[in-house]
Design goal:
By secondary structure, the chain is α/β, with parallel strands linked by helices. Helix content is 51%, strand content 7%. The protein contains 21 helices and seven strands.
Length: 449
């Protein structure tokens, strides 16, 4: 008999009476599953594995509400294996060992396979994940994990190499439309028995605020339906206006501790680097509205001003620091405009990473050559002994010469002639480049003499 501890909802009538709409509307068969056609379509690897009852160890990776648990339930319904499931939040090594012992007993007694579903597998630590390894490798258990986090970072490499990662995507608008309309018309599991209607504007609004999350979409539909369910049959209609009243705030997809945080900050940074002020404002707004710490964004912008602009526009760093001061002085929400001003300035400023590249080369050179001695002529000589040791001898004071420049070596002897900073022709760096090249030419002429 299959073990469905995690999935058990009691009797079917209990589920219909008490479970949320999103729970009731989960499809039970692969043929009824909407979306993720790259995984569930005819001829796909997963579809064949289900049809042939030849499941393999896999990890479902996708955002919340993308159908990971639903697919696991379908596997539970359509496989002949013993299906055991638990949540990584509630279980540890002790429970894993117990499952392994039961799987071994079942195989020895009945030659029946065990499929182990682990929800939120990324929450298991290394020791807990290690406990699966020998049994997944031997084939005693077929592991199916579900995670919202990138498995490359959250699942240990040995376990990852023994599983196949199945990437689930956000549901498309078309997918969500099918799911919502099915829930409206299904008389057994959905809202069909209440005779509730929803116009296209309401459906599109629910889809738009659900960010590709089927669970959120169904929860939103259920919330809107609760507003009209008690009305007379002819008044049980969800309009675009009524659904907006029922769902006052859009919940943006954003986890400040998860992968989406890094996806959004990456999009923001790359939009500024790509000189796209429109995308820059969009990603900035997305993060601020989702509750991101403005000072985190300001720190990233300060870094950007030096890394991606540098001396092509020295004012970029000054303006970003001014934005930090302005936000600190005014606070939200009015102070957010200072962030927007700085972000657009950074996006539209001339770009150069020569400062970033030059400093990177500098650190590399220091690590390679060690701490070379300072040339004698540019050492400080405050004492008689130091002067006798020729500290400062031969040093030429730049202001005694025309344009305050005189050809002179400042690098350690072993590094003379080394070029680390190579300014571009972008913005103000073009002026710097002309100056530096002129100085370097004078030094080269002096060396040839």
């Amino acid at each position: 008999m299959k073990n469905l501890d995690l999935f058990s909802l009691g009797t079917e009538s209990d589920a219909l009476d008490t479970a949320p709409l999103a729970e009731r509307m989960r499809p039970q068969k692969i043929a009824d599953y909407v979306g993720q056609s790259h995984l569930t379509g005819e001829g796909t690897l997963l579809r064949r594995a289900i049809a042939e009852d030849q499941l393999f160890s896999m990890i479902f990776w996708g955002p919340p509400g993308s159908g990971k648990t639903t697919l696991a339930r379908i596997l539970a319904n359509e496989t002949k294996a013993n299906f055991v499931s638990f949540s990584a939040v509630l279980s540890g090594v002790k429970e894993i060992r117990s499952v392994i012992d039961d799987a071994r007993d079942l195989w020895e007694a009945k030659k029946q396979k065990t499929v182990l579903f682990v929800d939120e597998i990324h929450r298991f630590n290394k020791a807990q994940q290690d406990a699966f390894l020998p049994h997944v490798e031997s084939g005693l258990v077929t592991l199916i994990g579900a995670t919202t986090e990138n498995p490359s970072f959250e699942v240990i490499a040995p376990l990852l190499s023994r599983t196949r990662v199945m990437l689930l995507k956000q549901f498309t608008e078309e997918d969500l439309a099918v799911i919502l309309k099915r829930a409206l018309t299904d008389e057994q599991r959905g809202l069909g028995k209440f005779g509730i209607q929803a116009d296209d504007e309401a459906i599109q609004f629910i889809i738009r605020i659900s960010d590709g999350d089927a669970r959120t979409a169904l929860n939103n539909l259920e919330a809107a339906a609760s507003m009209v369910q008690g009305l007379s049959p002819e008044a049980r209609s969800i309009s675009g206006k009524s659904v907006q009243e029922a769902l006052l705030k859009k919940f943006l997809l954003y986890d400040k501790d998860g992968e989406e945080h890094y996806n959004l900050i990456s999009a923001f940074h790359k939009s500024m680097r790509g000189s796209d002020p429109d995308a820059t404002l969009y990603w900035l707004g997305r993060m601020l509205q989702a509750g991101e710490d403005p000072f985190y964004l300001l720190r990233r912008m300060v870094r950007f001003a030096s890394e991606d602009i540098g001396n092509a526009d020295p004012y970029a760093l000054m303006l970003t620091m001014a934005a930090q001061q302005a936000f600190h002085f005014i606070g939200p929400p009015e102070g957010e405009l200072a962030l927007a001003q700085a972000a657009v300035y950074l996006a539209t400023a001339p770009k150069s990473n020569s400062l970033y590249a030059g400093y990177g080369k500098t650190k590399e050179l220091i690590n390679k050559t060690g701490y070379l001695p300072v040339p004698l002529h540019i050492r400080n000589a405050p004492t008689k002994l130091m002067k006798e040791l020729q500290y400062g001898k031969g040093y030429k004071y730049a202001h005694d010469y025309e344009d305050a420049f005189v050809p002179q070596e400042y690098l350690p002897e072993k590094l003379q002639g080394q070029v680390l900073y190579e300014p571009t022709d972008a913005g103000f760096e073009k002026t710097i480049r002309e100056r530096v090249n002129a100085w370097r030419r004078q030094k080269n002429v002096k060396e040839k003499k």
